[in-house]
Amino acid sequence: MSKPHAPSTATKHGVIPNPALQKENPSDFHPYIMIAVGSPRKKGNSATLAKQVAAGAGSAGGNVETFFLHDLNIKPCSACDGCRKKKHVDCVIQDDMQLLYPKLRSADAVVLASPIYWFTLSAQTKLFIDRWYGLGGDSGYALAGKKFGIVLAYADVDPFVSGAVNALHTLQDALGFIDAKIVGMVYGSATKAGEIKQNKDLMDEAFELGRKLV
Ligand SMILES: Cc1cc2nc3c(=O)[nH]c(=O)nc-3n(C[C@H](O)[C@H](O)[C@H](O)COP(=O)(O)O)c2cc1C
Question: Rounded CA gap, 192 and 185, in Å?
């Protein structure tokens, strides 16, 4: 477990702190759950499921922060290997990942919520993951041992036809490679923004995933 977290006061960059924890003593320990939403639709289906994960985590005492990757300036990895040089802790690119690296390092659990675009993760989600390269080094990756939750939304009802299976395989491989632990995956089909709310079983699953991540 990382150090105890004070309830977040961040309001910029699409961050949503857990208001339930704002009045508590900052020394109270709450596992920190970082949620990254890779859809441009703030009320879309992956965001709706992510909100439900946040509600579950919050109900179990987690301190949750949600980041909308689409609102952030996240450049692609430039493969310069600057992050592998001793003087740099994280990536050398000065963009909004510099806000997210400390969050990733200190998170007890991370949730990735992505729509399926062209049979895999959205570009916003993939850019974010590529930049995790900056968290690696001789002693492995800073995300090793952390709990992960995965949320996916897609249009085609069949996860094979939709490409959701490709995204799941990618995440299994990537998270396995960095020695992170997948706690659960919640995925389902919907098209119109927020339509996924009608899938009560999936909403319950998302809430439960949040509880398990704490
Ligand atoms: C650019 C783009 C590409 C898409 N590609 C796929 C796809 O390959 N497979 C699929 O099932 N749905 C695809 N969809 C549909 C979305 O995955 C679906 O509407 C999903 O619910 C969107 O999630 P969101 O509301 O979180 O953005 C695509 C949508 C867009 C805008």
Answer: 21
